[in-house]
């Protein structure tokens, strides 16, 4: 296991907001039940479930080294192969010997969907969960806002201009990676151009909620050059237990997410920007959100005297 991987797991497990919320939800949901965890990592959530009184936990993990650590940790804490059953592989390629009462997971990242939670949890709901079973997390509300974070602008400037100006090195090819990567940032209030708006609300038990999100419409209150969209979410683990990742909330290892447009979108006061967020459909362990943005000039936006509203949106064009 590499030093980077160890640091990744340490960052997650050192997050008290995440750990305390999952512990509380697991204690409410898992006692006396058969559980399947997707994405076990080093095993802390499976261990919580068994310590809370789960009858058995099937732990699925694609990282063989991490799964072996989890197996040893669970054994050391008193849970043998009859209580913790490690299963190596991607969850959609794994078969369970029985249906389970609880599907437990924490396959979320800063942009909510980047660990392909929509695909893997939908598959687990269909193939693993017994009738009347419970998904933990239960629901997810994902919000977006238009933004130009200073840290992202500095990174783009470094590859696109600074190296060339300082050393005569042309590294503009790196801009493609910068513009397509989904970044984890701490977004400051003055880096946002719009209020947060709901992108997608998902009840993981409802098949229809896995559909692609509809466009989100923003009206600008001042002229700006928008580099992309920020992402924050509220996840409901179970009734009464939630985690929020908005600026100003208790900080988590997720911080906030940011997805860049390939080119900045410029707008004037009163303009409408319609954002279409594209979530790839695949079996990959990681997916990258992309945004397409359609600008509607202020003069085309109907005022109150004409009934208000935004004209019908065409298919969004790439930003």
How would you characterize the overall build of this protein?
- The chain has 319 residues and is α/β, with parallel strands linked by helices.
- The chain folds into 2 domains: 3-106, Vaccinia Virus protein VP39 (Rossmann fold); 141-306, Hnrnp arginine n-methyltransferase1 (Distorted Sandwich).
- 26% of the residues lie in helices and 31% in strands.
- It is built from 7 helices and 14 strands.
- The chain has helices at 3-13, 16-29, 44-51, 64-76, 117-127, 150-167, 174-180; strands at 34-38, 56-61, 84-88, 100-105, 129-136, 139-147, 182-185, 197-203, 216-219, 224-238, 241-244, 256-267, 272-278, 290-296.
- The strands form 3 sheets. Strands 6, 7, 8, 10, 11 and 12 form a 6-stranded antiparallel sheet that branches. The chain has a 5-stranded parallel sheet with strand order 3-2-1-4-5, with helices on both faces. The protein has a 3-stranded antiparallel sheet with strand order 9-13-14, with no helix packed on it.
- Helix 6 runs antiparallel to helix 7 (174-180).
- The longest helix is centred in the middle third of the chain and has 18 residues, at 150-167.
- The chain is globular.
- The model is unreliable at 315-319 (pLDDT under 50).
